[in-house]
Predict the 3D structure of the following.
Amino acid sequence: MKICIYGAGSIGGWIGAAFAQAGERPNVVARGATLDALQRDGLVLVRGDQRTRIPVHAVADPAALGVQDVVVIAVKAPALAGVAQRIAPLLGPDTIVLTAMNGVPWWFLDGGFGGELAGRRLAAVDPDGAIAAAIPARHVVGAVVHASCSLDAPGVVRHHFGNGLIVGEPSGEATERVRALVALLVRGGIEARVSPQIQKDVWYKLWGNMTVNPISALTGATTDLVLADELVRDFVSTVMREAQAIGARIGLPIAETPEDRHAVTRKLGAFKTSMLQDVEAGRAVELDALVGAVRELGQLSGVPTPFTDALLGLARLQARGLGLYPAAAA
C-alpha cells in the first residue's frame, strides 16, 4: 500500500511505526530538522530502553509522492489549513484520509450526524470552508488517539503509555475500508478498534482535555496540581457540565460526572499537557479546536456557555500576548 504520514511528530511517528511493523514502508511529508533527520536516520521509535529504527521515504513536497491509498494527518489544528493547501497531489478517488488530531475536527457534523446541525461548517475550525473543500468528506475517516508519546529529538518518537486508536467513519458505518484499516493497525501492534459513532469518541476525549489543557497553559501547572486546587477543580467541572449539556443536545450524551473523569486524570499523575508543552516551546496553541468549537456548538444548539467563554477568553488573551494565536481583527 501507499501510505503517507503528513505530520511526523510524536503521534504521526507512532502511527507510522505501526504501519511499518505491519509490513508497509510509510512515506512522510516533513520539513526542516524533522525532514533532515528522517532522510538521514529514518524514524526512530523508543519504548523504554528499546530503540527501533524504521526506514521511511521522507519528502518536503507532497507532489513527489503522488496519489496514496492512505494519508494520515497528524498535525496540530493550527497547521491544518497549510496541510489542506498542499494535500491535493496525495488524493485519488479512493484515498482514505485518517485524521489523528485533538479537538473537534472540521468534519464533525458530516455523515448525517448532528440532527438539525448536520452538515453545518464550524467556523472555529474551518473559517472559510477551505479545509472541507480541499479534503472532501468522502475521503475522511476519523481517529481518536489514546496514547502518550513525545519527541526526544526530530524524528525520534518516545512512546510512554497507552496504545489505543479508535477509528470510525463520520457516518458510523462499519465499512470495508475502515475494517481493513483497523486490521492493518492491529497487525502493526496498535490496539485499534472500529467505532460505531466516532463523534462520540471525539467528544468524550475532548470533554476530559478541553479544560486542563488551557488551564495548564495559563498557569504552568501540571494536571495533578490543576485538580488538586479545589477552586480550579470546581471551575473545570462547571465547564465540563456546559460541554455535557451541549453533547446531550446534539446526540452525544455522557453518563459520567466530571468527578468521575477527574479520577481518571488523577491516575496519570503529574504530567504536562500538550498545550502547556506548546506554550513552553513557542508553538501555536489549539484553542479553536479544543475550546472555540465547543463555544460555537453551544451557540448553534442554544446552550449557554459562560464559563467556557471565560476560559477561551483568558487563554486566548495569553496566547495572543505570546504570539501563539492570531491577533484580534481590527
Summary: The longest strand covers residues 140-153. The CA atoms of residues 4 and 27 lie 4 Å apart. Strands lie at 3-6, 27-29, 43-47, 50-54, 57-59, 70-73, 96-100, 140-153, 156-168, 191-194. Residues 230-250 form the longest helix (21 residues).
